[in-house]
Amino acid sequence: MSTGVRAGHVETALLVTDYRQRPRKRGITLERAITEAVIAELGERGYGALTFEGVATRAGTGKSALYRRWPDKLSMTADALRAALPDPESLSLPGELRADLIVYLNSIAQGMAGSLGLGMRVLCGEISRHHEFAEMWEHRVIGPWQTRLTELIADAIARGEARPGALAPECVLAGPSVLCQRFTMTAVPMTGPEVESLVDNALLPMMAARP
């Protein structure tokens, strides 16, 4: 009996129609599936080859579900990258410079250990090739985290724990830069003890108040 699918085309047919055979995702489940699909597609294909169709197929939904939420792939990618990281405003900071820096950097490192890590490995190349991607990454993803770190340091200055010069760009960017460089070079996020070493041996000597 013929199935209507020629030999050699079975695999392709399944790839195209497989998501329709699964239970339809809704609400938070669908949002999570889309986020994971965007990150995975970004990591495997790069931003240039990222498509709504590829994301929809991987997420197990239809393209219409994506178009209802985003006008273009740039906004979809921005929201997925932000969703893959915790909200910087939700961080529970102890209110002491060393402990705050450790909590902050550990949150980023833990995000790298998940699906976000796959996408982050291609960021350097994508930023150099796609101006719109670079702007999105800087303002919509990294921006809120830089603002939170700046506030953290400013609070430490107000308490007398950090010197006023600790708000210089090189001080603010040093920790996240080391964290990201390590990951892009090795694909292995920094561990908790390594984050503590970074804080104790590099960040605190730069930021701490001086007699």
Description of the structure:
There is one protein chain. This protein is mostly helical and 211 residues long. It folds into 2 domains: 10-82, Tetracycline Repressor, domain 2, CATH 1.10.357; 88-207, Tetracycline Repressor, domain 2, CATH 1.10.357.10. Helix content is 68%, strand content 0%. It has 11 helices and no strands. Helix 2 (27-45) packs across helix 3 (52-59), helix 6 runs antiparallel to helix 9 (131-159) and helix 6 (97-112) packs parallel to helix 10. It is elongated, with a radius of gyration of 21 Å. Mean pLDDT is 83; it is low at 1-20.
Which keywords apply here?
single chain, 211 residues, mainly alpha, Tetracycline Repressor, domain 2, 11 helices, disordered N terminus
Strand content range:
under 5%
Supply the helix-strand structural class: mainly alpha
Number of helix segments?
Answer: 11
User: Mean pLDDT, rounded to whole units?
Assistant: 83
What is the H/E string?
Answer: HHHHHHHHHHH
Query: Could you please say which CATH topology of the largest domain applies here?
Result: Tetracycline Repressor, domain 2
Distance between the termini: 88 Å
The proportion of residues forming helix, as a percent range, comes to: 55-70%
Named CATH architecture of the largest domain:
Orthogonal Bundle
**How many strands, which pairing sense, and closed or not: the largest β-sheet?**
none
Rg from alpha-carbon coordinates: 21 Å
